[in-house]
Amino acid sequence: MTESATPDDSPRPDRPLTIVIAADTFAPDVNGAARFAERLAAGLAGRGHDVHVLTPSITHRNHGVFREVIEGQEITVHRPPGWRWYPHDWLRFVLPWMAKHYSRKLLDEVPADVVHSQSHIVLGRALTRIARRRGIPVVATNHVMAENIIDFTTLPPLLDKYVVKLAWADAKRTFDMSRAVTTPTRKAAEFLENTIDIHGVIPISCGIDKRNYTADLSPRPHSRVLFVGRLTTEKHVEVTLHAVAKLAPELPEISFDVVGGGDQRRNLEQTAQRLGIADRVRFHGRVEEDELRAAYTKADVFAIASIAELQSIATMEAMASGLPVVAADAVALPHLVHDGVNGYLFEPGNADDLADKLRRVLTASQEEYSRMQQASLEGVDIHDIENTLDTFEKLYRGEPL
């Protein structure tokens, strides 16, 4: 195929699109970026579009093109050889010098109308450059913060800063090749604009299907704290453990359910043991979707101490399950949690403040607790996945928002 730097005309609004999504993380990975890419791909396929996903294979030997069922929809998934990044518990990557080869191969075979990059690091970076040369418009979504990366570089802190600076400079070059750059919230858009000096970043919620979650609105005693997410350092689950330990003497029924896997699980289990609350904390690991939804329904409050959330799908799922939320007052979490309305915000890293806010929820009158539940249910309405799909379809077609 002859490569060209001149973009094609925008696709007609009356026909389905052929969409190629580049994702450095995708099923079976369990994290916010992967979950968003899965829901986006499935939602677009459900609307009749021909969706192809480029993502690393689970093992470098088991690569190829597969028809996979994602969120109930059949998707064509192109999996070039993936290699484990061993400092991380599940992260895989395609060798950077091979990423362009597989990007060319895919675009030789698939008549793409648009490319949607979910990561500017390896596959999204490569596919963006090849698409740009061929005149295929690119939409880019950023899910990355420095805190998501530096814990796994294995480099000294001074080199970490240098590597992160180079990475953001390369990200800017990639984003400058895109028709539009999006990120999940206005706060995240401001972060990106200030970090790499670009303008016009569009906030588009990752979106969830609220119908998949069930709220328990019946009057009952409140004692169950829940966290869902990766067990990595930037999530700061240990802060919640300390808060639960502080509350245990006055709230004898309090318990803490931790759903998700990660490299910090062993350390967190040891922390619970050291704090004397091992009998109150249950680490469930990764669970199936039905079990995850049941965990939300059974819980009484969702607690998230993370300082690196560009949106937090787990928090939206908790809200859709009718849970009050206690969240760190950091990055994008205040966009979801309004202090005193559907829960409370606490000072990041402050276990005493977190314990105080958890106490307020767990000891609230039934009337006050029900008010917070209803506020969560109403607050998540604007994050409906159908709104997200509508917006991305307009971007793909080059229509004004």
From TrEMBL:
Entry annotated with the keyword Transferase: yes
GO molecular function: glycosyltransferase activity
InterPro entries from the UniProt entry: Glyco_trans_1, Glyco_trans_4-like_N, Glycosyltransferase_grp1
Pfam families, per the entry: Glyco_transf_4, Glycos_transf_1
Domain (Glycosyltransferase subfamily 4-like N-terminal): residue spans on this chain: 30-209
A biological-process GO annotation: carbohydrate derivative biosynthetic process
Domain Glycosyl transferase family: 224-375
Keyword flag Protein transport: no
UniProt KW keywords: Glycosyltransferase, Transferase
Official protein name in the record: D-inositol 3-phosphate glycosyltransferase
